[in-house]
Amino acid sequence: MIGTGSMGGMMSLLLADHNIHTHFYDPDRSNVEKLLSQAADTNHLDKITHHDYHKSLCSALPADSPKVFLFSIPHGGAADASISDLSPFFKKGGDIIMDASNDMIPWPKSSNELIKG
Q1: Helix (H) / strand (E) containing 101
Q2: Which of 49, 112, 106, 51 is nearest to 84 (CA)?
């Protein structure tokens, strides 16, 4: 999970409710603390893992299987920066990026170009 504000945090807890371990990155410390507190309150700390960097998040995931990156961040600069940081770890033809943000604008061309790169 990339971005754990209101929507990303709740999606992480929902996934944990369904026994899906979620690794997450969010640069906003208040979002991190809120999600970890909610995970503790709902007994999901064993299924929700915070990472301070995109690299540590990717390194914690199995290298031999496809990954799903759920984006719950604003389009444009924040998404582009995350895609740029994550791109060395993407496996073409296997990994999936899901745009779960609620921006009312289309996925920017810049993000598409970064993914194709």
Answers
A1: none
A2: 112
Element (H, E) at 24: strand 22-25
Residue 83 phi, psi (nearest 5): -60, -45
Residues contacting residue 4 through CB under 8 Å, at least 6 positions apart: 12, 24, 26, 31, 32, 34, 35, 72
* pLDDT tens for each residue of 8-27: 999 999 999 999 999 999 99
Cβ-Cβ contacts under 8 Å for 51 (sequence gap 6 or more):
23, 24, 25, 57, 60
* Greatest alpha-carbon span in the chain: 41
In angstroms, the CA 46 to CA 20 distance is 10
Judged against a pLDDT cut of 90, whether residue 73 lies above it is answered with no
